[in-house]
Amino acid sequence: MKRVLIANRGAIARRLIRSIHAMGYESVALYSDADANLPYVTEATHAFHLGGAAPKDSYLNIQSIIDIAKENDVWGIHPGYGFVSENADFVRLCEESGIVFIGPNLEAMRIMGSKAESKELAKQVGVPTIPGSNGAVATLEEAHQIAETLGYPVLIKASAGGGGIGMTVVKKEKKLESAFEDARKKGASFFGDDTVLIEKLIQNPHHVEVQVLGDKHATIVHLFDRECSVQRRHQKLVEEAPSPFISAETRDKMCEAAVKLARAVNYDNAGTVEFVVDAQQNFYFLEMNTRLQVEHGITEMITGVDIVEEQIRVAGGEKLSFSQEDVQLKGHAFEVRVCAENPEKRFFPAPGMIEKVVWPVSKGKVRVDAGFESGDAITPNYDSMIAKLLTHGATRKDALELMRHTLAEVQWQGTETNLTFHQKVFEEPNFCAGSYDTSYVKDVLGLKV
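The chain above was modelled as a monomer; its predicted structure follows.
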């Protein structure tokens, strides 16, 4: 029987276990000192202690992960998202150890993992890109020249960054130097790459992404789009599929562009091509995430495709189990990220104990991907996300109304969360009408981010 090791924790570990077991495979979980008592540890077929609570001692310790995999006859490793999911060194180590990495090939990951290289590739294949620097910006002097040519405001960002790390909006020239140095330092510290890019800032855009899937037999398909514009610090809080903003014509063009870009690097697993879209529905390539996304579940709801199962099959050399013609957009879906944080205090993390939680029941058109249960501790060592709540309806209105009911069903006692924030969002008229963009949290809700 194949054993699939999960190099992750919490909600995504539990979600991966579901598909792994449904395929008849054994799951192998890893846990740090901080996570020994979390639900995914007991739900897995096998579980092994990985290391200390700090990520560098556990979920980022690639040699320890590989050692456990080899000692326990693991066939493949699914990295989930975050941690080692886009770590080229980890992929190489898997290959050298004869272990299947459940993700794209190394070259595709390398090219698309670089904002500079991926942007250049997008230009080559005719995918629109945001005006900006041609590749890396080497010096502060060069940065000033580019910013002046583009015109303020501009966006400074670490080329290898993600999740908003190393990204700063610069509205005036005097702020450029500090933003440039910050991007270099954070790029080097978090991603081992101090390369910096500069782009013209698209004012109040929509953040829309396209899910793609490819196999090792040159088949690449899209699974439509997701709107991810409710954000704080460039990190998503609410997602929906499909986008309520773009037209059918724009959707077709974006999906075509995403597939074209994936095909250019022989992409062979799950990936997400992200775009920013302006008020006139002009779209521009932003980046590609070469991994499973947190919000993949809403795409599964509107297409009926189990993306994780397809990932595992593709990694084993199988063809995708469906063609592009088989993919039909069915209804509408929402996802909210329930996090231990205080929206009234710039969404600062709020680690602590969960005294009691009762989640809604996952069935039918409601799905709960929770990483924690009553009595669990949310530590400051990792991301603040506790769970994801997802709803699906025949129409956007149906899915939205169901999310209101689902949020109201959560019973919570313990540390602070953003549950009340989500309840406000799903009652707020602009959001309910589908009329919002990335400025929503700050400009409409009036919250500091």
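The two ends are 48 Å apart (CA to CA).
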